Amino acid sequence: MQFLSIPGQAKEKKQLVTQVNQDRIPHAQILLGRPGSPKLALALAYACYILCQDRKDGDACGVCKSCLKSMQYKHPDLHFAFPVISKEGKKREDTTSQDFLDQWRPAVSENPYLDIQAWSQYIGAEKTQPNINTRECNEMIKQLGMRSFESPYKLLLIWLPEYLGKEGNRLLKMIEEPTDNTFIILIAENQERILNTIISRCQITKVSPVSDIQATEYIKARHPNIDSEILAQAVQMSDGDLNKALHIALGSSIDYSDLLLSWMRLSYKRDFSELNDWITMLNTKGREDIKHFMEYAMSFMREYAFYLQTEDVSRLSDSQQLIAKNMTKIMDMIKVESVAKLLQECLSEIMRNVNPRICLMAKSIELGDILRSKDQVKSLYDM
Question: DSSP class of residue 271?
Fold first, then answer.
């Protein structure tokens, strides 16, 4: 991976490139960022740049022998450690990242912004918690204790060191006193779950989430035929989480904006036959899409509240702007707060595996009560 393929992050890229160019690479550092931020992508591009034999204009050349191997994640001096589960035919205590490299490489090539949930699904670990075990720690120490094969450097990328737990104590000496030209890069999301003894031995670089514009341009460039309205909704819902934006935009053909307006109209109307049909339709989409719908509705309400206070529609798509302007006839800030609370409750119940049909019907009745309250008298059918 090259820096040029990563959206935004100008400050972070400059910092990493400067470290290499000035021969001041920290022996151990943490790239820390929210889920879906480009921290893993930056680490991969950084490793490629360090190993590149012909660096140009602040990036790896992408064509030298070293780059070709690095970009396939097969360079013999580039090592990976990440959370895994037991491999078929092996005990968990004997399984390491090495057993999952054939799955790791295509997963990261396809989506360098993946999170632990996406990785768990990729390796079939939905019902098992992946972790980094004792055997893995011993393998890391062994790998970095050997001489490099092709490059003057050896690199170890540890993705999600939060899953080391107390086993991380085994790595302290390696992190504090690595061999010459050995660099350890930890890619983390939650600093509080990493041992303080590890944090104190590392330099921390905080990675910012991508902006909505950067996320939109990135996804559109790679998927030019994607529906613009669905993409806009996915980016708005993701709040800088590029992995989530990709998952929603590519995995759903649902127009959440139209779905939300339909729900509000039917709840206001209180036609239980039509409302039951709407709930049945949504229920057939599956729990994940229901969750995404609630997340979209919450996101839209936040933007609508911002619009009520500022009349700024810059973060709303064209269709959302029309809905927002018409909603002012029936919904003020008091109602927005009530609806937002309702949506949060509904999302929480869905995530706790409450029956979606029962939950949606109950919340639809409550939503109708909020919309029909006397604060505003215009009808939803004026929208």
Answer: -
